[in-house]
């Protein structure tokens, strides 16, 4: 099964520790969504926006570990999405989205894990910085 990561699970080292069977597959984008912070990373529907991330092949055991980490179904729920890689190839994947939508800035150590994950996947950190700045403006 494919899992779309857009937050701290982009960090390949952290993901491998949590999900031993996981296999990094591709850097991808999710159209018509936007990255936000609700203390933790979250995505919301937003026409014309794009969320950068990556997909991993995950096992049933990995999914159990992810469910526990994401506090599913209380903190995060799961939805199915279609993402696209740099060459236009589409993938069906599941993703976690927060149940409660309250804007709040992330703690620095958590944010740094995401920054490191962006570097792991060679994603533009400017998109992450934009989400943080928008969160600070609202607060």
From TrEMBL:
<dbReference type="InterPro" id="IPR013024">
    <property type="entry name" value="GGCT-like"/>
</dbReference>
<feature type="domain" description="Gamma-glutamylcyclotransferase AIG2-like">
    <location>
        <begin position="3"/>
        <end position="105"/>
    </location>
</feature>
<dbReference type="InterPro" id="IPR017939">
    <property type="entry name" value="G-Glutamylcylcotransferase"/>
</dbReference>
<keyword id="KW-0808">Transferase</keyword>
<dbReference type="InterPro" id="IPR036568">
    <property type="entry name" value="GGCT-like_sf"/>
</dbReference>
<feature type="binding site">
    <location>
        <begin position="3"/>
        <end position="8"/>
    </location>
    <ligand>
        <name>substrate</name>
    </ligand>
</feature>
<dbReference type="InterPro" id="IPR009288">
    <property type="entry name" value="AIG2-like_dom"/>
</dbReference>
<dbReference type="Pfam" id="PF06094">
    <property type="entry name" value="GGACT"/>
</dbReference>
<dbReference type="GO" id="GO:0016740">
    <property type="term" value="F:transferase activity"/>
</dbReference>
<feature type="binding site">
    <location>
        <position position="110"/>
    </location>
    <ligand>
        <name>substrate</name>
    </ligand>
</feature>
<dbReference type="GO" id="GO:0003839">
    <property type="term" value="F:gamma-glutamylcyclotransferase activity"/>
</dbReference>
<keyword id="KW-0456">Lyase</keyword>
<protein>
    <submittedName>
        <fullName>Gamma-glutamyl cyclotransferase, AIG2-like</fullName>
    </submittedName>
</protein>
<feature type="active site" description="Proton acceptor">
    <location>
        <position position="70"/>
    </location>
</feature>
